[in-house]
Every structure is written in structure tokens, then in C-alpha cells.
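thread from #wetlab-drylab

HS: before we spend reagent money on co-crystallization trials with thiamine diphosphate, can we at least see a predicted complex? here's what I'd submit
DV: go for it
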Amino acid sequence: MTTVALKPATMAQALTRALRDAMADDPSVHVMGEDVGTLGGVFRVTDGLAKEFGEDRCTDTPLAEAGILGTAVGMAMYGLRPVVEMQFDAFAYPAFEQLISHVARMRNRTRGTMPLPITIRVPYGGGIGGVEHHSDSSEAYYMATPGLHVVTPATVADAYGLLRASIASDDPVVFLEPKRLYWSKDSWNPEDPQSVEPIGRAVVRRSGRSATLITYGPSVPVCLEAAEAAREEGWDLEVVDLRSLVPFDDETVCASVRRTGRAVVVHESGGFGGPGGEIAARVTERCFHHLEAPVLRVAGFDIPYPPPMLERHHLPGVDRILDAVGRLQWEAES
Amino acid sequence: MTVMEQRGAYRPSPPPAWQPRTDPAPLLPDAEPYRVLGTEAAAKADPGLLRRLYAELVRGRRYNTQATALTKQGRLAVYPSSTGQEACEVAAALALEERDWLFPSYRDTLAAVARGVDPVQALTLLRGDWHTGYDPREHRVAPLCTPLATQLPHAVGLAHAARLKGDDVVALALVGDGGTSEGDFHEALNFAAVWQAPVVFLVQNNGFAISVPLAKQTAAPSLAHKAVGYGMPGRLVDGNDAAAVHEVLTDAVRHARAGGGPTLIEAITYRIDAHTNADDATRYRGDSEVETWRGHDPIALLEHELTERGLLDEAGKQAAMDAAEAMAADLRERMNQDPRLDPRDLFAQVYAEPTQQLREQQAQLQAELDAESEGSHR
Ligand SMILES: Cc1ncc(C[n+]2csc(CCOP(=O)(O)OP(=O)(O)O)c2C)c(N)n1
């Protein structure tokens, strides 16, 4: 057995490493976006790429999101593999027409003759004290668009593995990067990064018997914290990290819920019309006879993202998660 | 120290020298749309090219009338005719080399056909049996694009990618006058100019966006003038003069191929038919305007020139018409056959590999189809 020296790395560093390795392995990989070149991106995720690969491979584009994604479509039509950076969640909206009308459906409308292997990196979510328009959780829009994969890592290793898989995918991938986990650290050996993770597999982050917390991205660490706190209440919670919202891993999720009989979906995105509704419905349709209680949701409120001084009231936290767990009809058990 | 406290020591100095980043004068379009037919320039035009353009225009007009007739027979869901605009459609196809790419809008079926796309496959979108009926790579014709101006950034990206790869490929993107108001028009032109991408934009200003005239679309002196703001040359051309459109496009394509960057061309033309067969043009324009433009018909203009110069006789006209009729007959015959439809195609190629959810939905549809066919056998 080889021993590898584990070093702490941040999620942002793992993402940079994934981009770098992908560019080194495949000359058709091109990074493009606002400030991604000289500056290395506002979150420094593209740091050093322009220097190492030249500005033709890591390009500061004009400031226009539809233009960035629209030109990426043409580049992909010519055989390149563009990796587009949207500077912030809410600034990806100008690119929606290109995303929905072309990126998501080009393969289908051309009967497979013109696939578009584009990765769209979007820093998303709140909790970093960002002012208006810097903290949206926009995943429900992407999930509602057939033809896109929607992927979001919660760990340093997954950030590397899932981004490599996304860039290698022949389908367009919306790669959602939880902003507040950019600086999260984990022991990870950058010289021997974890193998490329297949897109579409959820993972059990913590095993438990009492109930399942189904979550993803920035809410994964919150759920793990809640699971620790729940031990005091006598609950042994399982935490499933979805990692990929599309394709959705019904198998892993349902296997967990069938074991525990109870489930809470946790995410920052608003509850109404949010991912949790879809997930709760899928679980109920498939696991109805195993359920001891209705599937509950802990989500952001159905409000425009709040100002930073109030955001802690909006974000799902440990207490709100434990409250929901407490409402899973435990009395029926005794 | 505040500015007020500083005042004693403050010495005003001029800002750093300013100058325009490029000289705008050479980018400006001419005062008049460029013309060849009926001018001295016509004598220099290649007779072979003019005859070829003529044959293609006659064929193109016939394609438009045949496709419109097919809508009446229920064989096409809708057809946006380019009658009156054939010079632009045909010249766009002929100005390109094999390796170049064409990015058409929904009105440019004819340009796709003139470039070699099978006439029936080109109508797949409008018949409604699939979205894109041809392999875009075969003739390097992007899918006919319906969301206005969204194909323009694709053309820029493709041209940019080709240049990065060291290929001398040019992209030609087509758009209507209404489409120039869209944000994607602006973004595409800006990216093209900043990247000096080998791309040519041809705006067919046919007077209307469905019912809305150009005056409600822009306050610019002309659409070609918009080029100056992006730092690329703008050119105005008589869009019904096939020789002029061909020359201006060929120049711009050559310029782009040589590394000179993009050009915006505005072709002044007119949409003789309604927006589509489903539109009623009498609600927004009068007959007299249409009649005026019929007097400046692209086919008649070229025919007149060729006849005057002894390059076309009755037999030549007849030959062009016969070829067009043969194309129309073939189109009629093939379009009168029912298209092959397979509901399973709905799930193919949504992703490279169908997701588990799509597999389940496909199985559901299959069960419905099986039940349907069992019912019909009973
Ligand atoms: C983004 C978008 N908005 C609206 C429409 C509906 N629409 C289809 S054609 C058209 C008019 C376009 O006019 P123009 O660009 O001048 O082209 P033309 O039809 O005259 O060739 C409109 C409004 C559309 N296809 N796409």
C-alpha cells in the first residue's frame, strides 16, 4: 500500500488544480469569463492558468454573460471544450437564453450530431456576507431545464473529482460552487487527487439509523453538524450528499430512506418550487410504505435573498434542522 | 488631509493624453447602398458568376413559392418566405468556401439549400417532424435558429475557435433588422471585434419585424452605422442586387480570412410576402409599398442586366425555369410522403447517456404505445 502525504487544501485550490490538470491533459479545454485571466477570477479559482497556458486558453472576455456562453457554444461546435466562469450566481442570469434555448438542447435538436461539452462554473449560495445579488441559490432554474447536468460539490476532494468529470463530460454541466465552502480546508493530496467522480452518484456522508438528511453543497456541513448535535437528543441521523442534482440518484437516496423511515430535505434555495419539493415527491412516490412520517423540508424562506446582516435568519441552520427532525412523528414509535 | 486643506499645494495638471482607439472614418458605411447592376461596375462582373446567380435566384424563388404552397396543403406547419430576398440568400451561400460556416435564422432555409443542404431536410423544422433535419457538420450550416440573434455569438465563437486552431475558416451569420435590437446582436458584434474573429454579419433589412417597421426598431442613421461603435467596418448594399451583395460579401469574407476581423453588412431589401403564411400583412402595410418593391425585384434586375448584355436568351431563361421546376417537383413529391416518426426519438440524445429517470419515462411511453397498438388490433 502506498502512503500519500496528506496536505490540507481549500476547495478553491482543489478547483484550480482540477482546471489546471484538465487543461494540461486536453488542449481543447479553454477557460473563459470575466477577470479569469490576469486576476485569476474574483475568487482566484483560475489563478495562474493564463500564465501557464496563455491568454488564448484562459481568456478575459468582454463583460457580457450571454456573449460568453453564446461564443462558448460556437467554440464547442468547432470541437473545443469551453469551461465558462460566471462571476456570481445572480450574474449568470443574462446567459439564461443561451443556456436554455441552445446549450441544453443542441444535442437533442440535432439528433446527437452536435453535442456541446461545455462546463459552466457558477459560484452560488449565501453565508459570505455578500450584498444584494451575490448570494442566490439558483439551482432550481437549472434543474428545471432538461439537457443540463447540475452538479455541486461539498468537499475538497469532490470539488476536484466532480469538476474533472464535468469537463470530461460530453454534455453541458452547470457546476455550482458553494461560495462559502471555497475556503473550507480538508486533508487532500494534490499530487494524488482522488479519482474522477462519476456524475450522478450521491454519497452517504454519515451513517445513521433514525432519519435521513438529504442535502447538497453548502448545506452538507450544516447537516453534519446537526447530526452531531442530534446525538444529544438521541437521534442517529444519516446524511446523504446528493452531489449531483441532475442526474438524480434515486437509488442511493431511497435506499437510505428505506433504512431510516424518515427524511428531511435541507437546502438554502427557497422551499416553494425549490429542489426540496421534487426530492420529497420522489422519495414519497418510491418509499411511501417505508415512511413513518411525511418528508419535511428545511429551506430558505420564499423571499428575495436577504441583506447580509439578516442572512443568518434565512439560512437553514442546525436548530431549524433539529426542529424539523423533531417533527418526524417520533411518538408513533413508542 | 482633505482636498480643501490641500488647496494651497494643489497644481492642476491635464489628464493623460486622449485619442480615439481607432480612426472611425474608414469604418463608416457609404452614403448610398452599393449597387452593381445598372451601373458601370456591372461591366466588370464575371458573366459566369452572374449566370450562376441568376439560375440560383430562379430556383430560390420557386423554392419559396413551392414551400408556401405546401403550407396550404398542410404539408408544412409554417413557412417564413424569403421571396424578394433571394439575392441575399443566394449570395450568402455562394460567397463562402466549402470549409466556411453559415449561421442562418428561420427565414434562411433558402441560403441553407443554396449551400447544399437537402431541400427536404432543410424543411424538417418547419414541417415539424424534428427540430434540425440535417447534420450541421455535413455542409457546415448551423441549425436554423428561431430565438432572434442568438445564433450570432455562436458564429463568433466558432470563427474564434477556428482561428485558435489555425484553420482559415470564416463564419457568416444572418440576422433580420428586428434582430439587431436584441442584446445578443450587440454582444456578438462586440466579442467579434474585440477578438478580431473571422466572422461576417449580414443583416437583411427587409423593412419589417413581423409588423413593426424599422423606424420603431432603431434611431441609428442606418444599421450599418452600428458597426462603427464596435470598431468594425459597416457596409451598405442594395440587397436586391445579387451581384452587389455577392461582391460585398466576398470582400468581407476575404478580409476576415486574411485576419482583418469582422464586418457588418446591411442589405436593403424587402419582404414581399407576409411574415409567414399565418400572418396578415394588410394589417400593417399598404399594397403600394409592396408594388414599389416589386419594381425592384432581384430576379428581374439581374435578368434585365443579363439580357441587355446579351448574356441570357430565351433558351437560357427557359433552362433556369426548367431546373427550378424539376427541383419543385422533387420537393413536392418528397414532401407529400408522410415523414417517418418514432416516438422513441423523444428520449434519444437528451443526454449522451439517458438518465435513469428518462429510461423510466421512455418505458412508460412504450407501454402506452403497446396498449394503443393492441387496442387498434382488437
Ligand atoms: C427572442 C425572440 N423574440 C421574439 C421572437 C418572435 N419573432 C419571430 S420572427 C420575429 C420578427 C423578426 O424580425 P426580423 O429580425 O426583422 O427578421 P425577419 O422575420 O424580418 O426576417 C419575431 C418578433 C423570436 N423568434 N425570438
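DV: Chain A has twelve helices and 14 strands.
HS: ok that's useful, forwarding to the group
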